[in-house]
């Protein structure tokens, strides 16, 4: 089941990992966005 937190996290990550140049860049963007949350 999805919770409001799941929707927040998905939206936040999507906004932070916007338009990467490659798959590796996408991974870096997601990792950095998660580090910001922690």
Automatic annotation (TrEMBL):
InterPro entries: RNaseH_sf. It comes from the Eukaryota. It comes from Harpegnathos saltator. GO terms for molecular function: nucleic acid binding. This is Uncharacterized protein.
